[in-house]
Amino acid sequence: MRLSLNIIVLCFLLATNVNAQQKVSFEKAKPFSLYDLNDNLVEYSDFAGKKILILSFFATWCEPCLKEIKELEDFSTKLDTSTVEILLISTDKGKRKTIKDFVKKHQIKFRVIHDIYGITAKKWKVNDLPTLFLIDKSGNILFRQQGYSEKIIEKIKSKIGDFVK
Q1: Is residue 7 a part of any domain in this protein?
Q2: How far from chain centre, in Å, is Cα 123?
Q3: Per-position pLDDT tens, the chain of length 165
C-alpha cells in the first residue's frame, strides 16, 4: 500500500515538473497580400519582424466596427508609431469607392486594405465583425477579439504597455 502511494506521488511530481517546463505557444499570423485604397500592395511581410501589428477586420455597414475604429484612433495618439502599426482590413464585397467614401466620411486616418474576396478573412478565421488581432514582432498572435469589446483598449495596453506613451 505504501509503495503504491509513493509511486502515485512520484508520478504526480514528474507530471507536474513536465508541465512546468512546457513553453507557451502562440498561433502564428498568416501572410496576406492585399491592396490598399490607393492601389498599393500591402503584405504582412512589410510588418513582420519590424512592428507590433494591430489588425482590425471591419465592414462599412458594421456599427460596432466603427465604434472600435474610433477607439483605436483615440488610442493611436498614445502609441509609439515607430513600433506599433494599426491596419484596417475591409471585408466589404462591394467597390472600393464605398470604402473610400466611408473612410472620408468618418475621417479615418489608418491605412485601409481591401479583402474583396474574403480570402484573408477566411485564412484568419474571421467569423464576426469587428475582429481584432494583436501580433508581436515575431508574428505571434498575442490575442484575438471577435466582436466589439468596450475593454479592447485595456486588453491591448495589458499586452503592449511599454509601447504606449
Answers
A1: no
A2: 13
A3: 554 444 444 344 344 443 333 345 679 999 999 999 999 999 999 999 999 999 999 999 999 999 999 999 999 998 888 899 999 999 999 889 999 999 999 999 999 999 999 999 999 999 999 999 999 999 999 999 999 998 989 888 888 876 554
Of all helices (H) and strands (E), which one includes residue 65? helix 63-76
Type of residue at 108: I
Domain tally for the chain? 1
29-51 CB burial, b ≥16 within 10 A, e <16: beebebebbeeeebebeebeeeb
Task: Report if residue 88 sits inside a domain.
Answer: yes
Amino acid identity, position 86 = I
Residue closest to 84 by CA, chosen among 5, 161, 2, 3:
161
Helix 152-160 vs helix 63-76: crossing angle, to nearest 10: 40
**Domain CATH for 149:** 3.40.30.10
State the Cα–Cα distance between residues 110 and 47, nearest whole angstrom: 15
**pTM attached to this predicted model:** 0.82
CA distance 109 to 90: 14
- Note down the domain range covering 60: 24-163
